[in-house]
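Hello,

Our lab assistant flagged a job as stuck in the queue for most of the afternoon. It eventually completed. Since we weren't sure the result was trustworthy after the delay, we are filing this so someone can double-check. Below is the sequence as submitted and the structure that was eventually returned. Let us know if re-running is recommended.
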Amino acid sequence: MGSEVIILPVIFGVIFAIAYLYFSTRNKERLALIEKGADASIFVKGRREGAAPFWKIVILNIALLLIGIGVAIFVGSIMVYNLGMEESVAYPGTIFTLAGAGLLVGFTMTKRLEKEN
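-- returned structure --
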C-alpha cells in the first residue's frame, strides 16, 4: 500500500532534479563564458533568416500524422473484412506503417517549406 503513495512524489522529484541540474549547469556554463570575455549575445536565440514559423511545421506534421492514421484504419478494415486478416495484426500494422509514412512525408514537406522561405 505504501508503494502506491510514494510513486507520485518520486516522479515529481525526478522531474525537479533534472530541471534543477539543467538550469544550474547552464548558468555555470554561461558565467564561465562571461568570465572569459565571451559576448553575451551568444545566449540570445535569434530567429533564423528564412526559417518557417514553428506553428506551421507542427500543424503540418500533426495533420499528416492524423491523415496517415485515418487512412490506416480504413486500409486495416479492408484487410480484415475483405482479405480475412486478423484484427490484431491488420490494424496495428497498418496504423504504425502509414503513421510513419505520414511523418516521413511531413519531414520532407518541412524541408521543402524551409527551402522556400
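-- support follow-up --
The delay was a queue issue, not a problem with the job. The result is valid. The chain has two domains: 2-45, 54-114. The chain has three helices and no strands.
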